[in-house]
C-alpha cells in the first residue's frame, strides 16, 4: 500500500497530502467509491454540503472503520464545507449541526471550510464566529476557507474577535492556473494550500509538455499533474468515480519530478486557465461594490 505523507496544519493537526474529492459524485456512487478508496489506502476524503453526499460519505467511512478496527478514526481526515447561502452566524451554526448529524457515524468532522466568499462582511464574519465555536466545542477539529483570494484572507485575519486562523485555503490549482501571489501569501500566513481540479478536469490531456513527461517517467497524465502538485507543496484533491484510477492517483506520491521537469510544467502557457469556469477569488468586498 502506498504511504502518503501528511502535512502539519497551523492547528497542530495533520492532514494527508492527497485526498479523494467527491464533487459531483452521485449519492448512489459516493459510498462505494469512498469504501474502495479507503481500501486502496486513502485517508482523506473531501466532501461539502453543496455536494449533497455528506451522509453517504460519512456513513461509508464509519462502516469501513467498523470493518477495519486496526485503523483508528484519527487516521481518517474528513472535510465538508458551508455554502454561501448558509453564511451568517445563525445559518452557519444550523448548517454545522446538520453536517455533524450526517457525520454521526464518525463522531466528529476534521475540517469545515467556508466554501466561497460570496456574501458580505457581516455574513462572512458571522460564519467564522460560528465555526470558531464549533472548534471550541471539539466537534470540529479544524476550520478553513475555499476560493478565498488575498483580500478575503486579509479581511478574515482582521476580524477583531479572531481566535482561530484558517488552516487551509482550497483553490483551483494546476500548471495552467498557479495563482502564484495567492499561494505565496497563504504560505507566509501559515495557511496550507489545497488544490482542487488538479487534473484540469482532463481538459489538457493532449498537452505536449505533460505528454513528454508521461513518456519520460512512464506515468499517466493524472499522475504527472498530481506529482507536480505535491512537489509544489499543495494538497491535491483528485476526483474520480472510476475505481481503477484510485490506486494510480495515490501512487503519484512516489513520483519525484526533477527540478527541471517541475519548471517545464511551471512554464506552460496559461491559456484558458479556469477549468471550473469561474474565478471566485475576485468576488468584491463590500467597499468595492459601492
From TrEMBL:
Pfam families given in the database record: Aldo_ket_red
Key words, A-Z: Oxidoreductase
Keyword Oxidoreductase: yes
InterPro entries named in the record: AKR, Aldo/ket_reductase_CS, NAD(P)_OxRdtase_dom_sf, NADP_OxRdtase_dom
UniProt-annotated binding residues for substrate: 115
GO function terms (MF aspect): oxidoreductase activity, acting on the CH-OH group of donors, NAD or NADP as acceptor
Family of the protein in this entry: Belongs to the aldo/keto reductase family.
Descriptive protein name: Unnamed protein product
Source species taxonomy: Eukaryota, Fungi, Dikarya, Ascomycota, Saccharomycotina
